[in-house]
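Worked Example 4.2. Consider the chain below.
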Amino acid sequence: MKSAAAAVALLLLAGLLAGCSGYSGITTVQRPAEAKDALPAGIRSEKPDLPSDFRLLAEDNRVKYFAAESPERTTACIAAYPVDKPDQWMLACSDGITGEREIVTTSHMGQPTVKLVTTGFDTKALESEGWRKVHANVLVGAVANP
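Applying the procedure from the previous section yields the following structure tokens:
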């Protein structure tokens, strides 16, 4: 009986410590992968150590937005794929993520600027500046012009 109580106490303590560890990642990318999550063939990173297990977060105005994060949730990437202009895809990553914040912003000439934010980040200020939320973790800004 004592060992069962001790085991329960240890599990509760582990749960409390995990809850205190801080940032828990981008919720949407933690779901099981589906066929729709496959990045289009042309999108690739030059760095093999970056996160590569992407999930489709949203599609807006014929642009697909994908995100991935490292297993320890300290590095995250955003990929944007314009269906009608596939050669204008974007991929950007950032590391050192430890809490709720803007992760990375990227742009490509002729495409909307894209911002990836952590789950739980308050985007009201960004939205008041003109950013449009297309997903809880993705905001879209102005089109980058030459």
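The chain is about 15% helix and 35% strand. The beta strands are 55-60, 63-69, 75-82, 90-95, 102-106, 112-117, 132-135, 138-143. Compare this with Example 4.1 before moving on.
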